[in-house]
Structure formats: structure tokens, C-alpha cells
């Protein structure tokens, strides 16, 4: 079905609530996001998630250091981009980033950038973790509460599952806060921009799948000590680490904890 967005919306794309769309309209903030990308991370392509009406896209296309791709699920936005940026048309991926096999189009390392839909931002990060070796850098805007959580360190009440899983593989900087008035329509929450740069960790010194499970299980019972929180997985022998709660542990502590759980599971096998 062909989408005539221009006739429907007088040349603009109508933000769709079910897609979590809030279009950035502040060009200064847009420039700050684009400038957050660095050229020394070894990538030649950038993938923008959810470009909408292209406030970031037009700035990305001015950069010679990399080639810009976009992925968009909204047909109206796709039509808008094809009309206003026809040179981008071969590099518009129509679909859902959560389900799209990017390796078919972007087999080499690429950066991710975008004003992420707030209702699925966590899912986008979990998907990015699945292909982390392809993604040396991420610069994105999302709900400030989530951005702060991702950038928080151990001992902070905001520190959580995403903090640990992402910090295991990325160095994270909180760049700037963005008020609701920078968007159309304005969201009911504050927003924040963060940058993630791939660190030197190629492989964790533990079972990675079990690491993810241990982190999630520990924080799902974050008010309990780790010994009690992890009982659904295994009954661990006494250890000083197990008297703490999840929010006190560093990434390295969680690696050590995963090794303990792995050993206990193997010992527990009849």
C-alpha cells in the first residue's frame, strides 16, 4: 500500500503513539548528538534507528567520515525520507531493528545513533548486545531515567541490569540532558543523551550466557542478599560476596559471582 503522507499531514509525519515517536526539533541538540560520534573507533558506516523526519539524518549525511544508513518501521517516515533525501534511498532499511538481520547489509563494524523510541529502548540495547562485536560505538537519546541508569556505577540506586551488562563491554558517558520542549510532541519525561564505546573486553572470564542470567536474577531480587537472591539458580556456599546486594557489585564482581554459580552448578550435578 502506497503511503501519501504529504497529503495526509501537510508535508509532515504525524508522530504515532504506538511507535513511541517524539520527533526531535532542536537543531542544537541534534548537532550535539551527531558530534558525539567519534572517528577513531574503526567503523565506516553508521546506522540511525528511527530517523522520523530526519533531523539527525540530514546532519549525518553531511559527514564524510562514514556512510549513513537508517532503519525505520514507520511507512510515513520512510516516504518522507525518500522524498527529502533521495540519495539515501538505497540505504533506507524498512523494518524493525529488533528483528532485522543487519549483517546482510552491514557486514562490517558500524555505529548506532538515534533518538530511540522510549518504549523499546531497553530491548534495543539487549539486541545491540547480541551483535556487540559489530558495534564499536552507540550515541543515542532516550528517557533520562534509563540513560542515568545505564551510566551509573556500583553503589548507586540507579545501578541495575542494563548498567552491568552494557558496562561489561562498553565504556559509557552521559553527555547531556534534554527537556521535553525539544520534541514534537513533547514527552512527559526528561531525556538524556549517552555514548557507549566498546572497551577492550573481547570475552568475559566466565560463561557469558550464565553471566547474563546471574545479573538478571540478582537484580530481580535486589533487596535480598545475593545468597538469597540466587537461590532459584543454585544454593551457594557461604562467601563474603554473597552477603552483599546486587547494586554493590562491580562488573568484575559479577564475573566472579558467575564463576561461583557455575562451579556450584557443576558440583550439584548428580
TrEMBL record:
- Where found? Cytoplasm
Molecular function (GO) terms for this protein are: 16S rRNA (adenine(1518)-N(6)/adenine(1519)-N(6))-dimethyltransferase activity; RNA binding
The record places domain Ribosomal RNA adenine methylase transferase N-terminal at: 29-200
Binding, S-adenosyl-L-methionine: 22, 24, 50, 72, 96, 115
List, alphabetically, the InterPro entries matched. KsgA/Erm, rRNA_Ade_diMease-like_C, rRNA_Ade_methylase_Trfase_N, rRNA_adenine_dimethylase, SAM-dependent_MTases_sf
Catalytic activity reads:
adenosine(1518)/adenosine(1519) in 16S rRNA + 4 S-adenosyl-L-methionine = N(6)-dimethyladenosine(1518)/N(6)-dimethyladenosine(1519) in 16S rRNA + 4 S-adenosyl-L-homocysteine + 4 H(+)
PANTHER family hit by this protein? DIMETHYLADENOSINE TRANSFERASE, DIMETHYLADENOSINE TRANSFERASE-RELATED
Q: What name does this protein carry?
A: Ribosomal RNA small subunit methyltransferase A
Q: Name the species this protein comes from.
A: Dyadobacter jejuensis
